[in-house]
């Protein structure tokens, strides 16, 4: 096991914040871009520690050590102070997010039931909207609510310091629920410091680094990578709401330019969105030459998106070598694999037909039988990665695709209050050697020269006529079949039809197309002249779009689509982190509850 000397010889995250507050009390720790651009709110290590102590003392007056608290905040300073207030007070925080109006509360209710939480922390600006839902959701009304921004700072005088232990539970990170109901991963202080040390080393961070993060703070990448990592490394970070990025992706790149950020990133979707939305005129306003680590993770990484982003933003000073594909998951705290920050992404072009047979064979020159996969770097030196046959549970031979298993000090303790699933997921051993315990990730991939390549998700593999198909490949084809299909808003899955598995594809249409079709009659008589392209898109029927999808899937995957549905924008089932919930899509299709665009 690699031994790290953590800042201030700390054994817990609490001790790191205390050390920063003592030695650098006036140094700005976090700056929040309120409007995503120039309006800012900042606070120092000293200010953060004082607020954390006050909130902790307030919690200690009513809570027992180990009590769980649901955190329901919009991204911003109040969330950060509440999180650290829980750590200081011995309360276990559960990062979540306020439910949106008219949206299901099923995720929050499932978390409350599993965690047996009776306390909810929020901000005074958010609480009224939550209270309006009390009548229809009695489970929320029964919680004890605290608006932490109203806690007076002199509460800190009553704070009673705790004797924190490295193996103590720091927080519960509930999984996104992309393939099942959300489960609470138990993250210890030791997990956090170990993973933070590796991120610091692999990303090449230093006190001179500067972060720019728009990722949701209630998910592992946004919380550990965007909030905890800067604290661990002692460098400043600017934070912006995911909504500000989604509304105008240019804000992200402008903030990097303005702040001279060195580390920033997101999922494949974010880079693709920038390529689609940033105009040639806007490129002239950007200077991305300071960007050293453009991390890319959380969902399948597309070689095509990497290429298009690098080509588009190279005139702005972006370097292809800055791309940092990596692989991680909540069950392993965060980072599992990553390369060196100076290396360009590793691409490997394979024979698609062999990949369907779970064999990673280099392409033979046939352009119709290729799939390019992106390497996600090497494993951490003090952990073990095994590629395992998910059925026999034996190690795969080199060149075979199997399930990715991980063992090491970064692996979490298990799932809260789910002993059976903890045993089956976190307690696996290789039968031939007895090595273990391993974490079964549920992801499929292979290793080559120490580099990990991800090929898909075990539960999502579609098997039709004895052939394996990765849904993300089909979904990528669907997205590229026509410009009116929204990016990252398609799902492919199979259903049983007369004892035979058949392919179903659903996809959202672009919002402007949906709006135009909705007001087509008005538009026809409106006193303005529409462009030829707009008129063409208005006249395009849903049957035409469906035909484009079917043709593309047939040509690229040799598959016939049993059913294709076009959905209204923003209605395809997704997790709170933006991942497609294919199991929910399938259930909605079978139940007939999907919001379909009618021709």
Notable characteristics:
21 helices; 599 residues; alpha/beta; four-stranded mixed β-sheet; five-stranded mixed β-sheet
Describe this structure in words.
This protein has 599 residues and is α/β, with parallel strands linked by helices. Helices cover 33% and strands 23% of the residues. The protein is built from 21 helices and 26 strands. A five-stranded mixed beta sheet has the order 11-12-13-14-17. A hairpin with a 2-residue loop joins β20 (439-448) and β21 (451-457). The relative contact order is 0.08.
Give the low-pLDDT segments: 521-536
Strand order in the largest sheet: 11-12-13-14-17
Shape descriptor reads globular
Rg, please? 24 Å
Give the N-terminus to C-terminus distance in angstroms. 61 Å
What portion of residues is helical? 25-40%
* Structure summary, number of beta strands: 26
Instruction: Briefly note the structural class of the backbone.
Output: alpha/beta
Mean pLDDT over the residues: 90
Counted by DSSP, the helix tally is: 21
Main beta-sheet annotation: 5 strands, mixed
Strand content: 15-25%
How would you summarize what this structure contains?
By secondary structure, this protein is an alpha/beta fold.
List the helices and strands and how they pair.
Layout: H1 13-23, E1 28-33, E2 40-44, H2 45-60, E3 68-72, H3 77-89, E4 92-95, H4 106-115, E5 119-122, H5 127-131, H6 138-141, E6 144-147, E7 169-174, E8 184-188, H7 189-202, E9 211-213, H8 220-233, E10 237-240, H9 242-247, H10 250-259, E11 263-266, H11 268-277, H12 280-283, E12 293-296, H13 303-313, E13 323-328, E14 335-338, E15 347-351, H14 352-355, E16 370-374, E17 378-379, E18 384-388, E19 402-407, H15 419-426, E20 439-448, E21 451-457, E22 462-464, E23 467-469, H16 471-480, E24 485-497, E25 500-509, H17 511-518, H18 520-525, H19 532-539, H20 542-557, E26 561-567, H21 582-591
Parallel strand pairs: 1-10, 3-4, 3-5, 5-6, 9-10, 11-12, 12-13, 25-26
Antiparallel strand pairs: 1-2, 7-8, 13-14, 14-17, 15-16, 18-19, 19-20, 20-21, 22-23, 24-25
């Amino acid at each position: 096991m690699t031994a790290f000397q953590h800042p201030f010889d700390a054994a817990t995250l609490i001790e790191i914040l205390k050390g920063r507050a003592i030695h650098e009390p006036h140094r700005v720790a976090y700056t929040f871009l309120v409007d995503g651009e120039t309006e800012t709110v900042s606070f120092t290590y000293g200010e953060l520690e004082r607020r954390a102590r006050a909130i902790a003392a307030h919690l200690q007056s009513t809570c027992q050590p180990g009590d769980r608290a649901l955190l329901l905040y919009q991204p911003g300073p109040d969330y950060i102070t509440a999180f650290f207030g829980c750590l200081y007070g011995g309360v276990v925080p559960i990062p979540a997010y306020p439910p949106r109006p008219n949206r299901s509360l099923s995720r929050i209710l499932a978390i409350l039931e599993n965690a047996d939480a009776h306390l909810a922390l929020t901000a005074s600006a958010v609480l009224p909207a939550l209270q309006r839902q009390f009548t229809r959701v009695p489970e929320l009304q029964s919680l004890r609510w605290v608006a932490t921004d109203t806690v007076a700072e002199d509460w800190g005088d009553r704070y009673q310091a705790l004797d924190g232990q490295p193996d103590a539970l720091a927080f519960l990170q509930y999984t996104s629920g992309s393939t099942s109901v959300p489960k609470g991963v138990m993250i210890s202080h030791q997990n956090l410091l170990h993973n933070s040390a590796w991120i610091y080393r692999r990303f090449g961070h230093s006190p001179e680094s500067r972060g720019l993060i728009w990722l949701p703070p209630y998910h592992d990448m946004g919380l550990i990578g965007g909030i905890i990592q800067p604290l661990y490394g002692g460098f400043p970070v600017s934070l912006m709401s995911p909504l500000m990025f989604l509304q105008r992706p240019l804000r992200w790149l402008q903030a990097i330019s303005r702040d001279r950020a060195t580390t920033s990133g997101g999922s494949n979707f974010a880079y693709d969105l920038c390529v689609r939305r940033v105009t040639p005129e806007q490129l002239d306003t950007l200077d991305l030459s300071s960007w050293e680590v453009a991390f890319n993770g959380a969902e399948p990484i597309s070689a095509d998106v990497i290429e298009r982003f690098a080509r588009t933003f190279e005139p702005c000073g972006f370097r292809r070598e800055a791309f940092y594909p990596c692989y991680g998951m909540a069950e392993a705290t965060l980072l599992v694999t990553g390369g060196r920050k100076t290396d360009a992404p590793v691409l490997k072009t394979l024979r698609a037909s062999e990949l369907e047979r779970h064999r990673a064979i280099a392409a033979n020159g046939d352009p119709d039988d290729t799939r390019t996969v992106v390497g996600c770097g090497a494993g951490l030196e003090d952990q073990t990665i095994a590629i395992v046959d998910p059925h026999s549970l034996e190690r795969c031979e080199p060149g075979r695709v199997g399930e990715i298993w991980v063992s090491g000090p970064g692996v979490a303790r298990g799932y809260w209050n789910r002993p059976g699933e903890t045993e089956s997921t976190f307690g696996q051993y290789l039968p031939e050697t007895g090595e273990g315990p391993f974490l079964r990730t549920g992801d499929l991939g292979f290793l080559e020269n120490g580099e990990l390549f991800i090929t898909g998700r075990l539960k999502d593999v579609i098997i039709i006529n004895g052939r394996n198909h990765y849904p993300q490949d089909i979904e990528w084809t669907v997205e590229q079949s026509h410009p009116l299909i929204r990016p990252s808003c398609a799902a492919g899955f199979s259903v049983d039809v007369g004892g035979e598995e058949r392919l179903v594809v659903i996809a959202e249409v672009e919002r402007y197309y949906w709006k135009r079709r909705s007001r087509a009659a008005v538009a026809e008589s409106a006193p303005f002249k529409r462009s030829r392209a707009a008129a063409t898109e208005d006249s395009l029927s849903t049957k035409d779009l469906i035909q484009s999808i079917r043709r593309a899937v047939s040509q690229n995957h040799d598959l016939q689509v049993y059913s294709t549905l076009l959905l209204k924008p923003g209605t395809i089932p997704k997790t709170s982190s933006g991942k497609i919930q294919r199991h929910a899509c399938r259930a909605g299709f079978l139940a007939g509850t999907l919001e379909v665009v009618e021709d």
